[in-house]
Amino acid sequence: MPNTIYLASASPRRREILVSLGFQPVLLTAETDETAQPGEAVVDYVARMARQKNAAARRLAAQRGLALAQPLLSADTVVALDNAILGKPRDAAHARELLESLSGREHQVWTAVCVSLGGQTLETAQRSDVRFKELSAQEIAAYIASGEPLDKAGAYGIQGIGGVFVAHLSGSFSGVMGLPVFETVQLLRQLGAPVPPFAEAT
User: Fold this and answer.
1) Span 45-95, pLDDT tens digits
2) pLDDT at 199 over 90
3) Dihedral (C-alpha) 23, 27, 31, 33: value to the nearest 10 degrees?
4) What amino acid positions are annotated as catalytic residues?
5) For residue 171, what are the contacts with CB-CB under 8 A and spacing of at least 6?
6) I need a labelling partner for 94 at 20 to 30 A (CA). Which of 15, 100, 121, 194 fits?
7) Contact criterion met (CB below 8 Å) for 68 and 117
8) pTM summary value
9) Count H helices, E strands: the chain?
10) Which domains are present in the chain?
11) Is 13 helix (H, G, I), strand (E, B) or coil?
C-alpha cells in the first residue's frame, strides 16, 4: 500500500495523527516492560521506552517473517511535574489527585519518537511546557465524570475536554497528543522515506 507506515503503538491518537497526514498505519505492537529505572531522568525514560517498543516490534516482525519495507514508528509520551512522571490514573480518586497537582502550575510533556527503516534507526525527544489554569473542585469532578481522564497520562487529554484547562502551551500541540508531527516527519525524511504532503496518484 502507498504511504504505509508500521505503528508500534496501540494509541488511537497516534494513529489518528498519522491518518490525518495521509499515512496508512499498520499496527505492529508487542508487550514491553515499562518500569522506570532508579534515578532515571524523565527524558531518558521516555526515549528508552520508544526504543524498546521499536525493537520489540522489529522482533515480532521477524518472528512473523514480515519484511519491513516501510518505516516502523514507535513513540512514548509522559507527563512530568517537578521531574516526577505522572502516569495514567489508577482510578477516579487518583485522577483527582493528579489534576489537583497540575492545577495552576506548569508541567512538562515529553514525547520520544523512534523510527527505523532499512537497518537504520533514528530517534528524537520533544518537550512541551504546559500551564494549567486554577481548577475548581467542581471542574475536576465534572471532568472525571466525563470519563476522559481515566486512560490518559497525567489524567487529561489536550485534544478533548481537557484542552479547556490549558492556559498556555510552549512546544508541540501534536507532541502533547502523543506524536510531534514536525519532528516525526524530519526523522522520516532523514531515513529517505516518503513524507507528506503526498502527491495524489493520477
Assistant:
1) 999 999 999 999 999 999 999 989 999 999 999 999 999 999 999 999 999
2) no
3) 10
4) 76
5) 109, 126, 127, 128, 129, 130
6) 15
7) yes
8) 0.93
9) 6, 7
10) 4-190 (3.90.950.10)
11) helix
Tell me, letter by letter, the H, E, C secondary structure of 76-141.
Answer: EEEEEECCEEECCCCCHHHHHHHHHHHCCCEEEEEEEEEEEECCEEEEEEEEEEEEECCCCHHHHH
Alpha-carbon gap, residue 108 to 84, rounded angstroms: 10
Long-range contacts of 181-188 (CB under 8 A, 24+ apart): 181/17, 181/21, 183/113, 183/124, 183/126, 184/73, 184/75, 184/113, 184/115, 185/21, 186/124, 187/113, 187/115, 187/122, 187/123, 187/124, 188/71, 188/115
Give residue 22's region: left, alpha or beta (phi > 0; psi -120 to 50).
Answer: left
Phi, psi of 23 (to 5 degrees): -80, 160
In the predicted structure, residue 202 carries a pLDDT above the cut 50: no
Indicate the Cα dihedral angle 18, 23, 29, 35, nearest 10°: -30
In angstroms, the CA 174 to CA 116 distance is 21
DSSP assignment letter at 69: -
Task: Count CA atoms within 13 Å of residue 127 on its CB side.
Answer: 10
Helix %, strand %, coil % of the chain (to 5): 40, 25, 35
Cell 526515549 belongs to: 47
Residue 160, CA distances (Å) to 86, 139, 147, 155 in order: 19, 14, 11, 12
